[in-house]
Amino acid sequence: MKTEVALRAEEAGEPDPEAVAVVVDVLRATTWVATALERGAWGVRPVPEVDEAFRLAAALREQGHAVLLAGERGGLPLPGFDLGNSPAELTQRDVAGRRLVLTTTNGTRALGQVASAGEVLVASLRNAGATALYLAAARRDVHVVCAGTRGRLSLEDVLAAGWLVRRLREACEGLDRSDGARVAEAVAAAWEGRELEALRAAEHGRRLLDLGFGADLEMAARKDAWDRPVRLEDGWLRPVGAGGTMPEVAGR
Amino acid sequence: MKTEVALRAEEAGEPDPEAVAVVVDVLRATTWVATALERGAWGVRPVPEVDEAFRLAAALREQGHAVLLAGERGGLPLPGFDLGNSPAELTQRDVAGRRLVLTTTNGTRALGQVASAGEVLVASLRNAGATALYLAAARRDVHVVCAGTRGRLSLEDVLAAGWLVRRLREACEGLDRSDGARVAEAVAAAWEGRELEALRAAEHGRRLLDLGFGADLEMAARKDAWDRPVRLEDGWLRPVGAGGTMPEVAGR
C-alpha cells in the first residue's frame, strides 16, 4: 500500500485508476466543505466557473431543491452569491438539508487534476484523521494532492496532508511512503499542537488575516474536529455513508 | 531579506537578478563537488552533456591542465570517464590542484534553472552551515532550488535546504521565509541528528543503497563537515575566496 503526496496540484501526475485520490485545500475550500457537511448540508457541488455555478443553482432550484450558491475569487465573495468560502460565515447560516454549489480557484483545479483516480476524497485538518481511517480500511494506494495557492505550495496543505499520512501510518504497518509523503509528515510533526500558529505563519494565512478572516484560520486549524470522510459521488461531495439518492442534474 | 525554497527544480521560477540562488543536489552532485573542493581540486566545471564534457576536458588538457572527467547517467559511471559521481570513490583519488569536469542529470538541470540569478552557489549538507553564514553576510534575497530526481522531489535535498534555512534564520533576525522555506526547515527539524537515517529512507537513497553506494550516503549525511561555501565563477564551481585566475576556455 503506497502513499504519495504531491505538494502542489501541478505535480500531481495522473493518479492510478486503482488509487484513492485525496484533495487537500485547507484555506479554505476543503475546510469549508467539511464545515458545511458537518452542519448537515445535503452535499457540496464543486464547479470551476462562476457562470456554471449560476446555471447549476438555477436548475437545482427549478427541481425544487433548496440551494445556496457559494464561492470566491481572490479570497473575496462574488456578486449575486449567497456565500463566500469562509467557514466562519457558514456557521451563521442554516445549511441543513441544502444543496451547496461552490466555485473556488485552487480547490476545483486540484479536483480536476485527480479525475483519473478510482475514488476521490477531499480532506482538511478537520477530518484528516477520519479520512486516514477510511483509507486504512480501503487498503488501496493513496495519492494525496495539496491544492496550493496560485501554483505555489501552501504550508497549511502540506501540514494537513502530513497529519493524514501520520494517522494512516499509525493504522497501517509498513506503509510505503514517497519522499513527498515523508516531507509532509515531517511538517505535521514540526508543528504538532501548534497548527493555528502554522496557519498564521503561512503565506495564504497571513493574507486572510489581513482580509479579516482570522476566525477561518481558527476553524481550519481544528485537527480531527469531525469524524467523517468526504467523497466525490456523481459530482457531489458528501460524507461517506450519507445515503440518499443523487439528484438528476445535467453536466459534471 | 527573503528566503524562498523551491522543492523541485521545475518549480524554481526565475530568480531575481539581485538574488543569490543556491542549488542543492545532495545525492550526489553537490556533495561530490564539496568533497572534490575540500580535497583541493582547483575547481569543478558542470556541463549538461556527455560530448560537451569530452570536448571541454580535451581542450583543457591541450592547455596543459591536469583534468579528470567525471559523471553519471542513471547513477552509474560513464564509459571513457575517469570517475563516476560517487563522493566515496573521489576520496580514493588524488584531485589536488586538478580541474574536474562533471556531467550529471539532475544537478546540471537545476543549475540551468537559476541562470538568471545574480550569483549562484551550490550547497550540500556538508557545507550548508558555511553557505548560510555567507548568505547572512551578503544580505540579499535567497532562492534555494532543490534539484530533486527526475522531476520528483527528493527528501534529502529538502532536508539540506531546510538545514541551510535554519542556520540562516539563526544568523538573520526576522528572516522572511516562504512556505517552501518553512516546509524545508520543518523537514530538517524532524530529522535533526538522524540525517543518515533520512538519506537511507529517501527514495533516491534506497536506490543508491541497492547499487552499492552506501558509503556515499554516509558522506552526504555529514552536516557542516566543511566550512566553505561554493560559488559558480565563469562556469567553474570554486570555494569562495579560492583566488587564482580563471582558465580561458570557450563556452560553458
UniProtKB/TrEMBL annotation, chains A, B:
Listed InterPro entries: ComB-like (IPR005238), ComB-like_sf (IPR036702)
Any one GO molecular function term: magnesium ion binding
Keywords, comma-separated and alphabetical: Hydrolase, Magnesium
Gene3D superfamilies per the UniProt record, alphabetical: ComB-like
Keyword Transmembrane helix among record annotations: no
Catalytic activity: (2R)-O-phospho-3-sulfolactate + H2O = (2R)-3-sulfolactate + phosphate
Cofactor: Mg(2+)
Superkingdom of the source species: Bacteria
Coiled-coil segments: none
EC number: 3.1.3.71
UniProt KW Magnesium keyword: yes
Family note: Belongs to the ComB family.
HAMAP family linked: ComB (MF_00490)
The protein's name: Probable 2-phosphosulfolactate phosphatase
Gene symbol of the encoding locus: comB
